[in-house]
Amino acid sequence: MLLHIAVCDDDESDRNSLLSHLTDVCDDLGLLTQIDTFTSGEHFLSAGIAKNYDIVFMDIYLNDINGIDAVQSAQMSWPQTSHFVFTTISSEHAIEAFNLNASHYLVKPLKREKVREAVERCISSCPAKNKRILEIKTGRKQISIPMEDISYIEVTNTRCTVHTEDHSFQTYTSLNALFTLLDEELFLRVQKSFVVNMAFIDSFFYDHIVLKDGTEISISRNKRTELKKQYQDFLFRYVRRQGL
């Protein structure tokens, strides 16, 4: 699963320490992460309000707005955020923090095992855990990628590259093998070297498609009619689910 994590702490040493712990913990757990750091509560609110973080690590004692107030503001405007973890030098705000439905409360100096405990508690009920997952081996790691995050997969020579909006991952697993693992209602084998997530298609032409990021991919000449019907069926299912 791909976790979007925010770390908000105005102390550079504490911020870097938590970032290091998170990197190690998520690597051990086989989690893909995108971690954004913020140096103040105002910075967090202004820069992150449009982003849906899965986990937010929030320091309570900040130079401007304190962490409690920052979380209250975020929860009012940003209800999609799944979990808040407060970090602080004292346990005196624990009751106040848990009144905000905090998932965890960490007292500095932070220890790696405590950070891991917080992450595991958060992901155990994180909505992303319920997403359909593609597991691949890349290098020495086994990683899990939510299928809904995959835009397309391409094969070059003996390696496949799995593309998401933010990352690209290479694996020696064949495209044929990967395709059998994917949701057939979501993915389209447009030609022998490409598999596309139909949710990422912007335009479907006679001989090629254009993805939302501008990527153009040619369509198999012998399967154009069949592929167009599969895409139309996908659009029909999408519209029906949305009640449009």
- Give the proportion of residues in helices: 25-40%
* CA radius of gyration: 21 Å
Low-pLDDT segments? none
* Largest β-sheet summary: 5 strands, parallel
Total of helices: 7
Q: Report the order of strands and helices.
A: EHEHEHEHEHEEEEEHEEEEEH
Mean pLDDT: 86
Q: What percentage of amino acids are in beta strands?
A: 25-35%
Query: How would you write the strand order of the largest sheet?
Result: 2-1-3-4-5
Shape, please? Answer: elongated
Class inferred from helices and paired strands: alpha/beta
Number of strands: 15
CA-to-CA gap between the ends?
A: 30 Å
Walk me through the structure.
- Strand 4 (83-88), helix 4 (94-99) and strand 5 (104-107) form a beta-alpha-beta unit.
- The protein has helices at 12-28, 41-48, 67-77, 94-99, 112-124, 175-181, 224-242; strands spanning 2-8, 32-38, 55-59, 83-88, 104-107, 133-138, 141-146, 150-156, 159-164, 168-171, 187-191, 194-197, 201-204, 208-211, 216-218.
- By secondary structure, the protein is an alpha/beta fold.
- The protein is built from seven helices and 15 strands.
- A five-stranded parallel beta sheet has the order 2-1-3-4-5, with helices on both faces. The protein has a five-stranded antiparallel beta sheet with strand order 10-9-8-12-11, with helices on one face. Strands 13-14-15 form a three-stranded antiparallel beta sheet, with no helix packed on it.
- The model has no long low-confidence stretch (mean pLDDT 86).
- The longest helix is centred in the last third of the chain and has 19 residues, at 224-242.
- It is elongated, with a radius of gyration of 21 Å.
- The chain starts with a strand and ends with a helix.
- Helix 1 (12-28) crosses helix 5 (112-124).
